[in-house]
Design goal:
The chain is an alpha/beta fold. It has a single domain, classed as P-loop containing nucleotide triphosphate hydrolases (Rossmann fold). It is built from five helices and ten strands, in the order E-E-E-H-E-E-E-H-H-H-E-H-E-E-E. Strands 6-7-8-3-9-10 form a six-stranded mixed beta sheet, with helices on both faces. Helix 2 runs parallel beside helix 4. It starts with a strand and ends with a strand.
Length: 201
């Protein structure tokens, strides 16, 4: 369960938004509506002016990002110098968790990761698949996906596979998009407008 009720002001813009759900959550809105700021606050990358963030009932508002139990993935999240299998295991390795070969193969197959070599040599969409797989295999409580589904080939199939893997692992996912119709791919939809979030379902 990801719970956030936070405020943040940047000049004339005020974010005053609340999200409280588990599962696969879509946050939709135009550029400048506050989606990225909200996710960055949940991740611990931006400090709110006020409010609280909870992950699975635990107040993480003042915690450093490495202790919050959430991972944020953006289109720029990959480590280009790593080879893809090393990259996929990297997040888990930081936590002292070993990812077995069978688990690695299953996730790669589900997410369409079928290449070898350094991640930096891949297309943007393929790099994002590796980054998203890395986040999943690290076993966090929540994954925050900021526009990183947008550049994928056959994205609806990928999102369905990612949703299934996350549910099986007990990981909540919040993903942002500019396309409100992406809500059909989620358990819950929030629409952001002028810094406020409206829960549609």
């Amino acid at each position: 369960m990801i719970e956030a009720a936070v405020q943040k002001r940047f000049g004339q813009f005020l974010l005053d938004a609340a999200v409280s759900d588990g599962g696969f959550i879509c946050v939709a809105g135009r550029n400048g509506s506050g989606k990225t700021t909200l996710l960055r606050i949940v991740a611990g990358l931006t400090k709110p002016d006020g409010g609280r963030v909870k992950v699975n009932g635990k107040d993480v508002t003042g915690m450093p990002l490495e202790r919050r139990g959430v991972v944020m993935v953006t289109p720029e999240s990959c480590i280009p110098s790593m080879r893809e299998d090393e990259h996929l295991r990297w997040g888990a390795k930081l936590k002292g968790v070993e990812v077995g070969g069978e688990r690695l193969r299953a996730v790669k197959e589900s997410l369409g990761i079928d290449f070898q070599g350094k991640v930096g040599k891949l297309s943007l969409g393929m790099r994002e698949r590796v980054s998203l797989g890395t986040a999943l295999l690290s076993g966090p409580a929540g994954i925050l996906v900021d526009e990183a589904f947008s550049n994928l080939h056959e994205r609806e199939g990928f999102i369905a596979a990612y949703r299934k893997l996350a549910a099986e692992a007990g990981i909540d996912v919040v993903f942002s998009t500019q396309d409100e119709s992406d809500g059909r791919l989620a358990d819950h939809l929030y629409v952001m407008e002028d810094g406020r979030a409206t829960r549609r379902f």
